[in-house]
Give the backbone structure.
Amino acid sequence: MAITQTIFKSAGRKIAAFLDIPKADNPPTIIYSHGFTSSGTKESTPQGTHKVVKTANRLRDIGFLVLRFDYRGLGRSEGTILEDGLAGEVEDLKAAYNFAVDRGFEKISFLGSSLGSAVALLSYDYLKPMSMVLWNPVTNLKTFTHPYRDYSENEVREIIGKRGSVVFNDEGKKYTLGTTYLKEIMDFKDGLRSDLDLQEALAKVRCPTLVIHGTADEVLSFKECKDSFKMIPSHNKKLIAIEGAGHGFYPVDSEYELKAVTATVEWFDKHGR
């Protein structure tokens, strides 16, 4: 078993990725779609091990290959964060999927986290994953204001008109969002971007799907997630509510995190082969 660094191209940009490779030949594959300002190429540090690394290790131990990559402009990948909006991240996920297919992997499932779950859902109808697990997913872009939480909607619209940008801090790091993503979201709010309709995307999901959400999520409403879950027509779906957990199931090594990781591994073990 090994972890290998690699790259693939998406819209001409180098996308950095890690492959967690098991001993098995032609293994079933999980593609991880990380959240807003996060990264797929996490590594263990003296401060702890990120939940996706723990999940990948456990999946690798039972014969899964895990492809973890960074969306453009984040982590080790080229580009600017959300420079082509969510549509650009959908293209990156498609490129990751094609990267796996080109190497002969056939049974491919998605693990999405937060905004990365939204990208997985928006890609579902194109890529038809074998199964999905969604961690505290974004299920409605009309109510997802986290990326510009320090600005009112009117201020964002003024910034778009001036072709400006939004600057914000997230976990101690400063990020800049340009007008492409901001306009994309405002156009969706105005009914001009049906391709970003997560409610419509949810209604197309027929693969085995597990949703895991903390009841105390301070970023994304658990109630909204629970209501959106009902829209999934799959006959094989499950919602796990982790009582008291916030967004991301923190802190590291908590009971919340262990429950999320264990449920994820068990789901793919049953539905991802």
